[in-house]
Write a sequence for this structure.
């Protein structure tokens, strides 16, 4: 199985990286592909360019076996719709289960995503939950896709919805940008190689 974690990654931090590692190990993924969004459709424009966000991601996962920095959204023009990304991954990886990992907040907005029902034709969706999340309250449109059996993910290439609890490190890219803008040290929230890049390129100095 191949995992996919999309995001703005402005910048990438240990919250993203720890979740990626935990799901890679738990689901036995052959690889986890981290895909920076060039033009996120659902939020204001990122503070840094797509190319810089990709470079920070590459630095963060250097030497991490099975972690892949995937630049397909950056190479496309127009809004970065996940449905287009999954469709292109499905073309590339013909017959292998794809697992799209999203946070609980993202899951709560899933129905606002472009052509959202089509996502399930290309991949399973795994929601990375926080303690206390209750899948019992699922909307009808998700109930039929929901499974708590791992084997169903492995035996189908797409179409299922699964919930998995990951460690929730209380780190956000927004908080990191604020720390840097206040001239404070963001150490231990993200890899040192990424901090060095941010300093070299003088990123996030203004909010
Ligand atoms: P921002 O603060 O700029 O909104 P962010 O830190 O939330 O950014 P994103 O790039 O928007 O990061 O997140 C990409 C994905 O990673 C999303 O699915 C999000 O739910 C998840 N994620 C973000 N922060 C964490 C964290 N601390 N722990 C686990 N998952 C996270």
């Amino acid at each position: 199985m191949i995992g996919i974690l999309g995001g703005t990654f402005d910048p990438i931090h240990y919250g993203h990286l720890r979740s990626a590692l935990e799901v890679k190990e738990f689901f036995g993924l052959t690889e986890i592909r981290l895909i920076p969004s060039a033009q996120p459709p659902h939020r204001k424009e990122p503070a840094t360019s797509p190319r810089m966000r990709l470079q920070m991601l590459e630095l963060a996962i250097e030497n991490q076996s099975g972690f892949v920095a995937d630049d397909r959204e950056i190479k496309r023009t127009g809004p970065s719709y996940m449905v287009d990304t999954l469709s292109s991954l499905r073309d590339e990886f013909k017959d292998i289960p794809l697992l799209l990992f999203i946070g609980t907040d993202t899951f709560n907005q899933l129905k606002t995503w472009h052509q959202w029902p089509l996502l399930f034709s290309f991949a399973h969706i795994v929601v990375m939950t926080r303690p206390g999340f209750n899948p019992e309250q699922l909307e009808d449109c998700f109930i039929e896709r929901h499974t708590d059996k791992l084997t169903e993910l492995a035996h189908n290439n797409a179409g299922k919805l699964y919930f998995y609890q990951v460690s929730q490190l209380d780190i956000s890219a927004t908080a990191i940008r604020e720390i840097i803008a206040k001239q404070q040290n963001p150490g231990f929230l993200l890899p040192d190689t990424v901090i060095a890049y941010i300093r070299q390129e003088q990123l996030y100095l203004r909010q």
